[in-house]
C-alpha cells in the first residue's frame, strides 16, 4: 500500500500515515476502525484532507470516456428512449422538479441500454451516479453496479422505521452527499421498506426533507416480474411489500417503454408470447382455474435427464470453453430441486471430486442450547453453501457473497467463476461474468450466519462462499439474460411473475426447454395434460 500511495512530495512518515488512513477507511466500510486494533498505531487524522476519499474517487469516472459512450449510444435510442433520457437529464440540470422516475419495461425493450446511457451522461458531467440493484447478478448489467444492501448498508432484518447503518461522519456519508443520481434497477423485486430506509437516511445525511434528500432517483423494473419475498406471506402481504404501495410512489413519474427493440421475427413472436404470460392473458385449459396454462409442445422435455442433456449436452465429456457453461442454467422454483440438479450434474462432470466440509457451530449468545452437530450439518439454508461442498477442476461455480473490495473487482453475489485450482485452504478461480471477466481471484473460507425466525438459534457455518451453478432458483435468475435456459417444474410456481421471469431469461424460443412433472399438476387442476402448469399473476399490481 505504501508503494501505491508514494508521491515525490511526501515524506516516509507521511506515506505511512496515508497507509493508516486508507486502512482506517477500509475498516470503516465494514463498520470497524483502527481503534479496534490496539497493536496498530492510529494515523494523524489532520492529514486526511491531503488524501482524496477513495470511495468518492471510485465513483468519479473519466469524463471523456463517458462522453464518448453517450455520443456513440444516444443515436441508437428510439424516440421513446430519447424522451426519457431528456426528462432525466433535465432533472439533473435542475430545469425540472421531477425527482423520482420509474422506467417500466419488459425484457427486450431497451431498459438496460437506456439506463447505461443515462449513467454515462451524468458521469460525463463529472457528477456522481450510483448504480444499484437487489442482486449482484442484476447489478452486473450496469457499470459500477453494486447491490443496494452493499452500497447503502441497509440493515437485515428491516422494519418500516429502520435507518441505514451509515455514520454521519463516514466516507460513505460524504459520497451520498455528493451523489446526483441513483439508478436502482429491478426495483419491483426490492422490498419497499428498503427503499424507504434509504430515503430516510439520505434525507437525514443531506439535511433535506425532499425524497432521497433532493437526489434524483431513477427506478427501472417490470411489474410483471417477481415481487419482494415475504416469508409465509399472503398475496396481500406480498403486494404491500411492493414499491407501488410506498408513500414514495406518489412522487414517482412512470415512463413506460412500449417499443420492442428486437428485430428478428422469431424474437418478436416470442416476446409477445412472454407478454401474454406476464399479463396473465394466456389461454386457459381449465375453466375452473384460469391460472392453468398449456406450455407449447415445442418446449417440452420428457424428464429431468433429457432436460439436463438439452442444456448441457455431453456433460460427461467436459467443455473446452468455460463461457459456454457460464451463460446457461436450469431454473427451478425451490432450493431443494436446485440442489438435486446440481448434485446430478457434478456427478456427471469429468474430473476428480474434491470434498470440502464446513465447520458449523451455534453462536455463543444462544445460551445453553444443545444442538447436535449432525443436525447443523444437515441444514442448507437459502444463500448458504452446503456442509459438504463437492467441487471439480474446470467446473463453473457461483459466488454466494459480496466479498470485501469485491464489487470493484467483480466479486459480487451471483458472479460465476471457473475453478482453476483446489487447495486445502484457498481456491483459485477465474471470473467469467461482469466487467472483470478473465480476472484471477483467490477465495478463502468465510463465516456465514443463519438468522432465521424458523430456528431458535443462530448458526455459524465456515465454508467457501461458492456452490455449483448448473442450476439456480428462478428468483436468483431475475435480472439477467442467458444463452440457454431449462425450466424444471416438479412443483408449480408459487408467486407472482415466477413463470414469466423463468421464460424471459432468453431472447428466443429456441434457447428454452421445459420439463413438467404432470403428476403434481393433476392435484391442482382437473387437467390430464403434462404440458400444463400454473401461472400466477397479481393483476392489481400491473
What would you note in describing this structure?
The chain has a six-stranded parallel β-sheet with strand order 3-2-4-5-1-6. It has a five-stranded antiparallel β-sheet with strand order 15-14-13-12-18. Strands 19-8-20-21 form a four-stranded parallel β-sheet. The protein has 20 helices and 22 strands. The chain is α/β, with parallel strands linked by helices and 542 residues long. The chain folds into four domains: 50 residues, no CATH class; 194 residues, 3-Layer(aba) Sandwich (Rossmann fold); 158 residues, Rossmann fold; 117 residues, no CATH class.
Descriptive terms for the model:
542 residues, alpha/beta, Rossmann fold, 4 domains, 5-stranded antiparallel beta sheet, 19% strand
Write the layout of secondary structure elements.
Blueprint: H1 2-5, H2 12-28, H3 54-57, H4 63-73, H5 79-93, E1 100-104, H6 111-124, E2 128-133, H7 136-139, E3 146-147, H8 148-152, H9 171-178, E4 179-184, H10 192-206, E5 216-221, H11 235-240, E6 252-256, H12 265-278, E7 292-294, H13 304-311, H14 322-326, E8 328-332, H15 335-348, E9 354-357, E10 359-362, H16 373-378, E11 388-391, E12 396-399, H17 406-409, E13 416-422, E14 427-431, E15 440-443, E16 446-451, E17 458-463, E18 466-468, E19 471-473, H18 474-477, E20 484-489, H19 498-503, E21 512-516, H20 518-521, E22 532-534
Parallel strand pairs: 1-5, 1-6, 2-3, 2-4, 4-5, 8-19, 8-20, 20-21
Antiparallel strand pairs: 7-22, 9-11, 10-17, 12-13, 12-18, 13-14, 14-15, 16-17
Helix pairs in contact: 4-6, 5-6
Summarize the structure.
The chain has 542 residues and is α/β, with parallel strands linked by helices.
Amino acid at each position: 500500500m505504501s508503494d501505491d500511495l508514494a508521491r515525490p512530495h511526501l515524506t516516509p512518515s507521511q506515506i505511512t500515515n496515508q497507509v493508516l488512513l486508507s486502512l482506517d477507511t477500509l475498516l470503516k466500510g465494514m463498520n470497524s476502525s483502527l481503534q479496534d486494533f490496539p497493536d496498530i498505531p492510529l494515523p494523524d487524522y489532520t492529514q486526511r484532507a491531503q488524501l482524496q476519499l477513495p470511495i468518492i474517487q471510485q465513483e468519479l469516472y473519466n469524463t471523456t470516456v463517458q462522453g464518448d459512450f453517450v455520443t456513440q449510444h444516444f443515436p441508437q435510442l428510439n424516440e421513446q428512449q430519447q424522451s426519457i433520457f431528456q426528462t432525466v437529464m433535465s432533472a439533473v440540470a435542475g430545469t425540472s422538479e421531477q425527482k423520482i422516475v420509474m422506467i417500466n419495461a419488459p425484457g427486450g425493450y431497451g431498459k438496460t441500454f437506456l439506463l447505461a446511457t443515462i449513467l454515462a451522461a451524468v458521469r460525463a458531467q463529472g457528477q456522481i451516479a450510483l448504480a444499484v440493484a437487489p442482486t449482484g447478478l442484476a447489478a452486473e448489467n450496469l457499470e459500477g453496479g453494486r447491490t443496494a444492501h452493499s452500497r447503502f448498508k441497509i440493515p437485515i432484518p428491516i422494519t418500516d422505521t429502520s435507518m441505514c447503518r451509515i455514520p454521519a461522519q463516514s466516507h460513505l456519508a460524504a459520497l451520498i452527499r455528493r451523489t446526483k443520481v441513483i439508478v436502482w434497477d429491478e426495483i419491483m423485486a426490492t422490498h419497499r421498506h428498503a427503499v424507504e430506509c434509504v430515503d430516510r437516511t439520505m434525507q437525514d445525511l443531506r439535511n433535506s426533507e425532499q425524497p432521497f434528500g433532493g437526489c434524483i432517483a431513477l427506478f427501472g423494473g417490470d411489474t410483471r416480474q417477481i415481487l419482494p419475498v415475504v416469508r409465509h406471506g399472503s398475496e396481500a402481504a406480498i403486494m404491500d411489500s411492493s414499491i407501488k404501495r410506498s408513500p414514495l410512489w406518489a412522487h414517482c413519474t412512470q415512463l413506460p417503454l412500449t417499443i420492442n427493440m428486437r428485430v428478428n421475427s422469431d424474437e418478436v413472436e416470442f416476446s409477445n408470447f412472454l407478454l401474454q404470460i406476464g399479463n396473465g392473458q394466456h389461454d386457459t385449459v381449465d375453466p375452473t382455474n384460469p391460472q392453468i396454462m398449456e406450455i407449447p409442445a415445442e418446449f417440452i422435455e420428457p424428464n429431468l435427464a433429457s432436460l439436463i442433456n438439452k442444456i448441457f449436452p455431453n456433460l460427461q465429456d467436459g467443455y473446452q470453453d468455460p463461457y459456454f457453461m457460464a451463460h446457461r442454467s436450469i431454473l427451478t422454483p425451490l432450493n431443494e430441486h436446485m440442489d438435486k440438479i446440481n448434485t446430478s450434474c457434478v456427478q456427471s462432470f469429468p474430473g476428480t471430486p474434491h470434498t470440502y466440509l464446513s465447520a458449523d457451530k451455534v453462536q455463543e449468545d444462544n445460551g445453553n442450547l444443545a444442538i447436535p452437530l449432525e443436525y447443523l450439518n444437515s441444514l442448507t439454508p437459502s444463500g448458504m453453501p452446503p456442509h459438504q461442498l463437492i467441487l471439480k477442476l474446470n467446473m463453473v461455480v457461483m459466488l454466494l457473497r459480496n466479498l470485501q473490495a469485491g464489487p470493484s473487482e467483480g466479486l459480487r453475489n451471483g458472479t460465476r467463476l471457473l475453478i482453476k485450482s483446489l487447495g486445502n485452504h484457498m481456491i483459485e478461480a477465474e471470473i467469467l461474468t461482469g466487467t472483470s471477466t478473465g480476472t484471477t481471484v483467490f477465495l478463502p473460507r468465510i463465516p456465514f450466519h443463519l438468522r432465521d425466525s424458523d430456528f431458535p438459534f443462530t448458526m455459524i457455518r465456515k465454508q467457501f462462499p461458492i456452490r455449483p451453478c448448473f442450476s439456480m432458483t428462478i428468483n436468483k435468475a431475475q435480472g439477467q439474460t442467458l444463452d440457454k435456459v431449462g425450466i424444471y417444474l416438479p412443483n408449480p410456481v408459487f408467486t407472482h411473475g415466477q413463470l414469466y421471469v423463468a421464460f424471459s431469461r432468453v431472447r428466443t424460443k429456441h434457447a428454452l426447454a421445459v420439463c413438467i412433472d404432470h403428476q403434481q399438476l393433476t392435484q391442482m387442476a382437473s387437467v390430464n395434460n403434462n404440458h400444463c402448469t400454473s401461472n400466477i399473476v397479481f393483476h392489481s399490481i400491473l
